[in-house]
Amino acid sequence: MKTAIIIRYCEIHLKGKNRGFFEKLLKENIKRSTKDINCTFTTMHSRYLIEDFDENDYEIICEKLKKIAGIHTFSPALVVDNDFTQIEQAVLELCKEKEGTFKVATNRADKSFSPSSMEASMLLGGKILETYPKQLKVDVKNPDFVVNVDIREDGKTFIYSDTVQCISGMPVGSAGKGMLLISGGIDSPVAGYLTAKRGMKLDCIHFHSFPYTGEAAKEKVIELTKKVGEYNGGINLYVVSFTHIQEAIHEKCPEEFMITLMRRFMMRIAERLAKQQNCQAIITGESLGQVASQTIESITSSNSVVTMPVLRPLIMFDKIDIIEIARKIDTYETSILPYEDCCTVFLPKFPAIKPNLDRVIKAESKLDVEGLIAEAFTKIEKYVL
Ligand code: ATP
Ligand code: MG
Question: CATH number of the domain that 42 lies in?
């Protein structure tokens, strides 16, 4: 008796003529993710199948599938020949450790197979009751679990009951490419995860201020980026030195605009790098009104220096909901590690909460914006994670 994994997708069903494009991409993403594991991969109308793997690799495969955008659910299944005795054995094996109520649902694509679907369900149900009289009872209306028996035309029968929920969404790469501004905080990794989940492939940019922010702060961002990368089929991180820009702002501009001006530099640099890397959007972890730099006036100020679309997946999320996702994708514990971020260095006592754009532009005119950006581009480190 062999084990297989049946994989189902979700929204791709809604696609029309270009459905093949999404199916092919999802297939490639699954294959790439499992390339180091010995297994076979096949397509069976609107579903995929992983077979012939070592039992010890089962959990590893499951963990990988749970991080692939576009997969809705998967089910571990037992696979036998279209032979009633073998099917019966597999059904009993499947129910061995189960308790509660059940029903058997047989689907017979191989119409030459005897008994019929209805009879097979009744016979198998009877056998289960006879074998496990204490633990199991039949309930056809509202069972605790369903024993699915899928008798296929190619001579194989799949028997399964458990369904594991995955992240759904759309295959990564189906919605273009974006540049995520990733800080060491809670929000930006969540924004990255949500973007990858909707099919946008990500690159990341992080601004650090050595020596004000140390090696540990950078390591933290690398760790967070890696975690986002698990949903993105790997990820590139570009680390930009922000120290001189911050020092210049600190020296030449009113303190209240420190963060506002930093944000404008971040956006400009991110857009330029995004263009170089063929990205079509910038993504941030901003959430409306969360802090002074995320009021609509602050967002207007940072948005006005770029023309590329800026996607803010968390803009209307409450912190509590963001934290819930951060826990789910396992970034929360890393995000709350207490290392400095460049935004906490030179933090003004009273930042402008509603910065006036004319005054911001006037303050910025004291700086050699182009020179500072050009210098930042000479010191970009790239990490392939
Ligand atoms: P996060 O939003 O990631 O939890 P945070 O709340 O400290 O961190 P803010 O300072 O509010 O972040 O910044 C808002 C957004 O700006 C972040 O979500 C991120 O997209 C971007 N950002 C902030 N600091 C950096 C940085 N050092 N490098 C890259 N992007 C940054
Ligand atoms: Mg934030």
Answer: 3.30.2130.30
Distance CA(10)–CA(244), nearest Å, equals: 48
SS3 76: strand
Q: Summarize pLDDT for 314-368 with one digit per residue, the tens.
A: 999 999 999 999 999 999 999 999 987 777 778 888 899 999 999 999 999 999 9
DSSP-assigned letters across all residues of 199-258: T-EEEEEEEE-TTTS-HHHHHHHHHHHHHHHTTTTS-EEEEEE-HHHHHHHHHHS-GGGH
**Amino acid at residue number 299:** I
- Domain of 125, in residue numbers: 2-165
Residues 6+ apart with CB under 8 A from 43: 23, 27, 49
Tell which one of 186, 188, 195 to mutate to probe ligand 1, the residue whose CB is within 8 A of the most ligand atoms. Answer: 188
- The residue to mutate among 181, 245, 265, 310, having the most atoms of ligand 1 within 8 angstroms of its beta carbon, is 181
Which-ligand-closest: CA of 347? 1
One domain, residues 263 and 309: yes
Residue 248 CB contacts under 8 Å (≥ 6 apart), including other chains: 367, 368, 372
pTM of the model: 0.94
Query: Same domain for 87 and 233?
Result: no
